[in-house]
């Protein structure tokens, strides 16, 4: 096996980077990252020394290094090893965690460096995969994936989630944001635009929107688009034209999201309705 090291920076979030590696004989010296370094051992075994202990991360395990946590690393058992990592700036993940929970800097640090958690594993792989697509995610989609990782860190750490929100005039501001989404469905939206429509900071808006409507802004935008797509399909319009109209990167992107909601593709839906 030829050893490989591949970095890919985010098209939107400053400092966010994904990293994939295939190694057998290479060994990392002792080092530390300024960012949160969160990854998944995909194949083989990942051995490293950190926090006074020797760790053996089996395939499927999450690897979690806090900022400035010293560690080394190499493939274990004399076999090839593959893994994916995300380097997430501390300021980015802290802002997201504090939008959904009561979390201090110390509480954001996990005490274990290798563990199994199916939810966080899937979240890491989803964003790592998406950052290597030819067609990058929108900033809204990327923010949504990062929010999932922030949620998992709060869940696994010592922080707590915010349960209650006082609304008052917030309802009207959030409705303004929804109206902004409705009038701009034909283009890619970012969270700064939507939160500005509600006259709120980005992270405050994410927290209030999620509490008020039971989904993140990205989930709402996607859900609303898919329902508009369904209406257009029922009118007999071309699925390819609909995909372009509502800002999907291509027909397969539309098919995947439509199927997640309705179980079938738009074309299959049209055929069943004999349109």
From TrEMBL:
Q: Where is the HTH araC/xylS-type domain?
A: 175-272
* One MF annotation (Gene Ontology) recorded for this entry: sequence-specific DNA binding
Q: Which UniProt keywords apply?
A: DNA-binding, Transcription, Transcription regulation
PROSITE patterns, per the entry: HTH_ARAC_FAMILY_2 (PS01124)
Record-linked Pfam families = AraC_binding, HTH_18
Q: Which InterPro entries match?
A: AraC-bd, AraC_XylS_family_regulators, Homeodomain-like_sf, HTH-like, HTH_AraC
PANTHER family recorded for this chain? HTH-TYPE DNA-BINDING TRANSCRIPTIONAL ACTIVATOR EUTR, HTH-TYPE TRANSCRIPTIONAL ACTIVATOR RHAS-RELATED
Q: Which named protein is this? A: AraC family transcriptional regulator
Organism this protein belongs to: Vibrio casei
């Amino acid at each position: 096996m030829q050893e490989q090291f591949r970095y890919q920076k985010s098209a939107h979030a400053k400092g966010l980077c994904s990293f994939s590696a295939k190694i057998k004989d290479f060994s990392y010296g002792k080092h530390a990252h300024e960012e949160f370094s969160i990854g998944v051992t995909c194949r083989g075994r990942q051995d490293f020394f950190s926090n006074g202990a020797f760790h053996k991360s089996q395939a499927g395990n999450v690897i979690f290094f806090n900022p400035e946590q010293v560690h080394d690393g190499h493939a274990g058992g004399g076999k090839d090893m593959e893994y994916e990592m995300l380097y997430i700036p501390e300021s980015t993940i802290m802002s997201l965690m504090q939008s959904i929970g009561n979390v201090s800097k110390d509480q954001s640090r996990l005490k274990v460096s290798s563990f199994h958690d199916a939810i966080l594993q899937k979240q890491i792989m989803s964003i790592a995969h998406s950052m290597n697509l030819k067609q990058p995610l929108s900033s809204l989609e990327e923010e949504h994936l990062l929010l999932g990782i922030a949620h998992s860190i709060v869940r696994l750490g010592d922080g707590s989630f915010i349960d209650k929100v006082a609304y008052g005039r917030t309802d009207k501001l959030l409705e303004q944001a929804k109206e902004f989404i409705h009038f701009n469905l034909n283009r890619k939206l970012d969270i700064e635009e939507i939160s500005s429509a509600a006259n709120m900071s980005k992270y405050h808006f994410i927290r209030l929107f999620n509490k008020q409507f039971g989904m993140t802004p990205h989930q709402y935008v996607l859900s609303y688009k898919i329902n508009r797509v369904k209406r257009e399909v029922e009118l007999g319009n071309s699925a390819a034209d609909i995909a372009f109209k509502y800002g999907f990167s291509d027909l397969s992107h539309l098919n995947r999201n439509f199927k997640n909601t309705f179980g079938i593709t738009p074309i299959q839906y049209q055929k069943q309705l004999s349109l």
